[in-house]
Amino acid sequence: MEELRLQIGGVALAAELILPERPGGLVIFAHGSGSTRRSPRNRAVASVLNGAGLGTLLFDLLTEQEARRRELVFDVPLLAERLEGATRWVTARPDSRRLPVGYFGASTGAAAALRAAAALGELIRAVVSRGGRPDLAADRLPDVSAPTLLLVGSRDPEVLALNRQASAILRCPNQLTVIEGADHLFTQPGALALFPALSPVVEMKEKTAQLVALIGQAVATA
Hints:
By secondary structure, the protein is of the alpha/beta class. It is 33% helix and 23% strand. The chain has an eight-stranded mixed β-sheet, sandwiched between helices. α1 (40-51) packs across α6 (206-221). It is globular.
């Protein structure tokens, strides 16, 4: 693991990059409100992805001082800008610039991931949202081109309704999967393993389908 300080937008953001030997892709994580790169759920998913031969980048979307300011925690355009900056940085590195890139976002981080994916276009090959708030990126949803997988717990009815609306707005290939028994944070024991292997999102190119499926299966295995 490579511990880093990303210089983005005039601030230094702590980050952790893992690139297995001959990685098949790179997944960049966008954590939710009140969380950091140290999110145990995200780390569990990242570990499974690393074992499957994918690289992972986990980083703090805000500095410690910024994270204390509620208005910044929910500033999705700012979070998306930070995610875009991290994406441009990692895709400029010689050891990762040719890798297909996917986003894995949770809660507000999922909104940031969708907004960043809309801005970066074909650079982003897949987006996976866990308990996401796509409504916070509603104005950019029609511009997302990356195939998108929306994972929502059945015990999170308000967010489930928001994701159903988002699925109808998205113009890219997308799939909404409801995880029976899981709440918003997937905190129940075994919640991340409450669903079977995920079918690929329809009409995706083969490598992109594989990337989405690998991320989804990592969530199921973690």
